[in-house]
Amino acid sequence: MSDTRWLNQVAWDEQGLVPAIAQDYESGEVLMFAWMNREALEQTAASGEAVYWSRSRRKLWHKGEESGHIQRVHELRIDCDNDVVLLRIEQVGGIACHTGRRSCFFQKYLTDEGWQTVDGVLKDPAAIYGKAKQDGEHNHD
Amino acid sequence: MSDTRWLNQVAWDEQGLVPAIAQDYESGEVLMFAWMNREALEQTAASGEAVYWSRSRRKLWHKGEESGHIQRVHELRIDCDNDVVLLRIEQVGGIACHTGRRSCFFQKYLTDEGWQTVDGVLKDPAAIYGKAKQDGEHNHD
């Protein structure tokens, strides 16, 4: 589609964003949640790799740009209200979370115990991003 | 956990909400996306059935309260930033979307065609909610 009708059809919120859910295209695991602005969604569709909008850094964020853990988009969907995007992706490197875990949803609620970490770290974030980066601010990549 | 530490640990946004993703606990399908406030999350954990916060109606919304399509919660997770909740649920009636479809994410992006509806209606919404309701405002249940 050379025109931009499909981008206009998205019900962007007052900040010009939509929530985006990234799901493994094969296993169905929900790997992460992020936000997209119009440019991020356009670049995602054009490149076939997930591009988000980092609200904390206020810039486009090509997922995996530092870690190499890019996300290849197999399918892009939108919900009934046109205000949430679902990406069915292939997670390169098998790690979506900046903590070095496969999925960002590694904490499970247990009655009487609250949120408990139930999934392990697959790779030390220091090895993924380098020590210097780890000493700095929260890493989203 | 009789105390409310786990609720305090959630990074509620400036409106006191967190995004919530509902996923089929067996197939992994992402069925819908909604929001929760503190009370909604507390009731969800206590009752074992999904309770959301309806931003449009500004009230708690026990999913399925009108349709009967409640969501039985098998697992409740939270992400690395404590600001997104994932519910692994059993969708009673097999229909999560107010359009009568299994999932709200029934529109797929196709190059040159934009968003296209690719999943069918399983049950007429008029039969789910009754004719009167359908003539009214957008139905979230």
TrEMBL record, chains A, B:
PANTHER family: HISTIDINE BIOSYNTHESIS BIFUNCTIONAL PROTEIN, HISTIDINE BIOSYNTHESIS BIFUNCTIONAL PROTEIN HIS7
Function as written in the Swiss-Prot or TrEMBL entry: Catalyzes the hydrolysis of the adenine ring of phosphoribosyl-AMP.
One Pfam family from the record: PRA-CH
Statement: the UniProt record of this protein carries the keyword Zinc: yes
The protein's name in its UniProt record: Phosphoribosyl-AMP cyclohydrolase
Cofactor notes: Binds 1 zinc ion per subunit. Binds 1 Mg(2+) ion per subunit.
Chain residues that bind Mg(2+): 79, 81, 83
Binding sites annotated in the UniProt record for Zn(2+): 80, 97, 104
EC identifiers of the protein: 3.5.4.19
Domain Phosphoribosyl-AMP cyclohydrolase: 32-106
SUPFAM superfamilies for this protein: HisI-like
Pathway annotation from the record: Amino-acid biosynthesis; L-histidine biosynthesis; L-histidine from 5-phospho-alpha-D-ribose 1-diphosphate: step 3/9
Subunit structure: Homodimer.
